[in-house]
Sequence to fold (422 residues):
Amino acid sequence: MKILVIGSGGREHALAWRLAQSPRTSKIFVSPGNAGTFLEDSIENVPLHEIEDLIKFAISENIDMTIVGPEAPLSEGIVDAFKARELMIFGPVAAAAQLESSKDFAKQFMSNHNIPTAEYSTFTEPNEAHNYISAKGAPIVVKADGLAAGKGVVVAMTELEAHEAIDMMLVDNGMGVAGAKVVIEDFLVGEEASFIVMIDGEHVLPLATSQDHKRLLNNDQGPNTGGMGAYSPAPVVTPELHAKVMKEVIKPVLNGMKDAGTPFVGFLYAGLMIASDQTIKVLEFNCRLGDPETQPIMMRLKSDLVTLVEHALMGTLNKVESSWDLRTALGIVLAAKGYPQSPRKGDVVIIPPQDNADVHVFHAGTALIDNQLVTNGGRVLCVTALGENAIKARDLALETSDRISFADKQYRTDIGYRATKN
Ligand code: AMP
Ligand code: GLY
Fold:
């Protein structure tokens, strides 16, 4: 089989790496990919960006299956466009991808289908938004409606911060069209988990649970980022909680999307807040795999990924099971100087060779310039390791991270701390 993976991050490197191990794969293309996918045997990068160009490529190369990594092409209708040409592609159509591309759509959908989430209201008028904040008080959360690459959420601990966020989004147009509408919601307390499943329109296959770490610095300090590390499994998701999430969140999405005439096909990621009394609330939906959650999840996946995606495309996910390495996988993101505000590019990256099959260095923001590996984005690498427990996985990931060099690399040393406490 020839497979095309769309995207250029650590998530896509991990996906392509796992797909390449399938005995059913003859060739993997990643578009546009990064230096890591370029350097893998049997993976080829294709520098395409437009949906029409990707369609032409899929037709001319006889691609059997395309898998979409990031949210932007999904919201732009890449799946609709591929399907119109009868090309096999795994991901939701744009109408279903609104669960991620519009926070207001997601909140209305949850409200219509009794999916637990924080109480909210949506605004386009700054004065009404300011009045709502004054009435509610802080802490409170302000979210840009549209896609904002992880930068559209302000968790305001004071009313002043919330008012400033409203002015930034609704008055000064600081987030562009993504922030022309805002959702304001109640602040939730608890432990977060990433609950990711595959859906074929009718059936659900849950992937292993995971947890990521959004803040830049140890002890969850510093600014929010796209994710500084992740691990799987997440012990907070007990079997009871798992069943509850399936019943209260995932099944209602599946049924609601079917009823709306836009059955959901693709990876669905529910970002959850789990309170100490085990009640769950959905913080957000993503219509794709998480990054960096995918890196540890792919390290643990033992089933043939090509076969799983094929079942998802055929509507037969009920006929297949997934199997997982019982060990913990843990990924540490090595970020560039200046991340997340203004990451520096062009620093030389040196990764010493290592032959331990329990570690893999997934690339994200890397490029090869004159045969030299250099930083090319905020999150540069995700060093992912397997271990008998979270501590051992982290030790191996840290040891490997220490040996990788580039100027002023930033990384957390406490990834997985909730799982290493006991
Ligand atoms: P989102 O993109 O909506 O998941 O928000 C990004 C991050 O902001 C989440 O991972 C949480 O850490 C935080 N967050 C979002 N919504 C809330 C909320 N209602 N209460 C507390 N924290 C939140
Ligand atoms: N790690 C969070 C995300 O992929 O959105």
User: Anything to note?
Assistant: The pocket of glycine (ligand 2) is lined by residues 212, 227, 286, 290-291, 293 (CB under 6 Å).
